[in-house]
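Section 4.2 – Deliverable D4.2 (structural model, holo form)

The reporting period included a commitment to supply a predicted holo structure for the target in complex with pyridoxal-5'-phosphate. Inputs used:
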Amino acid sequence: MQGEGRATPVSAAVAVSESAVPRAQEEEPPGTPIPEPFGVNDRGHLTIGGCDTVELAATFGTPLYVFDESYVREQMRRYRRSLAAHYPKSTVYYASKAFLCGGMAALADEEGLGLDVVSGGEIFTALHAGVPAAKLMMHGNNKSLDELALALDAGVGRIVVDNFYELSVLEEMAAERGVRPRVLLRITPGIEAHTHEYVETGMVDSKFGFPLVDGLARRAAIMALRSKSLELAGVHCHIGSQIFSAKPLEAAAEVMLAFMAEIREVTGEVLEELDLGGGLGVRYVEGDDPPAVESFVRTIGRAVRYAAKRHSYPRPHLMIEPGRSIVNSACMTLYTVGGLKEIPGVRTYVPVNGGMSDNPRPALYGSKYEAVVADRAGDAPTRIVSVAGKCCESGDMLIRDVKLSDPRPGDILAVLGTGAYNYSMASNYNRIPRPAVVFAANGEARVMVRRETYADLVSLDVVPERAAVISPAVPGVADAVASAVAAVDNAEDLAVGQRRIDD
Ligand SMILES: Cc1ncc(COP(=O)(O)O)c(C=O)c1O
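Output (structure tokens):
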């Protein structure tokens, strides 16, 4: 792959408004520098991981998720380094819900992180990629019996118990198997993270975890400590995602240590582990200003040290579970632009060959993104347009009001910062095959997930016999399909005719 290096400060497009109200074309937002880790090469093409994005699109097709592998690794190293510096007794778990495939699981393992998994599918993916079960931390507010069985049988390192039902079921299942899993209790600390309500999880009115109110969390801890089949290692909380200040996490550290001290007072037991979840926010558009990994981690480490001291509690083993901040800014999604729709004085729609099927976040949360015409990333953006997805929903708009460099049909459009909660939330809505995922590093690109085909789309269908014909995705099969269907029709006609004769 051709293309060089890191970002040179050129103009890129900026999403300026999520408003559904059409805006006048003259209200032009300024261009901003293309954010790290992306760049522009001497052909004026957008680059990632030393690869030319226009070439990537030609080679692998679009839509295409492209990750800068070195950036992902560096984010993981930053977390490990800073946590080791500010709180050595600690472990970083990658929250795989942000983005997971076999290659990503292996990468996190190689970088020395554990994996936070939240379903049987995520456990299976991690094990399939060779991640040792002991390095997995299992979450979920309604784990199925099958998922718990998978976790127990595989020997998952820690199970985070969410509710009383799960506590008793897990105890029974562990006793039946003669195993003693290490568990943490998920606590809802009653803290508001000041983020989107859909990703706020730590307040009292939450579907997750044991509330502190009415002594419910205390009761759960006492039950778990009394259990002969469970080893209660500690407590967990996750207060929310896309958080721009570590302050709520400082508060969470205090609440959690106060709770641990309360349990020690009531039972005499010292819980060894404290997991404060993930949540550090990322920059999606200009103006987003999250703290650096280092300062976020420093604040958390200090908060736990101080809280332990305040409660005269031995410093627990501290775990954190970042997801978004590890992968989001590493990735862009490449699309091909279709025919523009211009409504004079109202809006110009730039349709792309993907949308809410590969990135549901704008439709789900009203999320904002930046975009660049990859073919002319070195040119100043000139026109305010809106990027429309191809799904049959008016709400499938990837970006409203973004300034681009004169987009034309056939251009490659890059939507930036799509690493987290895009591929993992992608769907086959409208029977659109999911895009491929590639990792780019040092000018080379490797496929991590191949593009879905139409044959993949129908591979799980159980169709009535009449339509059970070979996939038309296989070359030359369209005719076979047509003749097979005709043959079935013919047979039916004959059968009907025969019945008439018989009658
Ligand atoms: C339990 C838990 N841990 C970690 C995370 C990761 O959060 P983020 O991607 O914001 O770092 C989440 C996200 O929802 C979560 O639910």
